Amino acid sequence: MTLEQLNALPQQEFAATLAGIFEHSPWVAQRAALARPFSSRAQLLKAMRAAVDAATLAEQLALIRSHPKLGARSPGHSLLTAASAREQHRAGLEACTPQQREHLDRLNAAYLERFGFPFVLAVRGHDPLSIIDTFERRLGNDREIERYTALRQIGAIAGYRLADMVAAPAEDEFLATIESLSRASV
Question: Would you say residue 159 lies in a domain?
Answer without folding.
Answer: no
